[in-house]
Design brief:
single chain, 79 residues, alpha+beta, 3-stranded mixed β-sheet
Length: 79
Amino acid sequence: MGYHRFNREDLAEAVRTSVLPQHAGLLLSTAKAVEELRILTGDFVTSDEEMADEISKVAVGMGCAVVFDEQAGADRLAL
């Protein structure tokens, strides 16, 4: 299994387009962010878990709370 290095700008854009504003700050659903990153990069091979790991590092650095929900049907986060 190879390691795919993502462009930081692509990761940050996936976070910005996927973040959900909440009363106490910013919340990121990794399911939505992984989908956005796949569209931005055209990478449909890297595992969801690996993408979510890279996305979460950037999201936390941007002050977001992260929900790891990268599974089928998880794109509807009910809070």
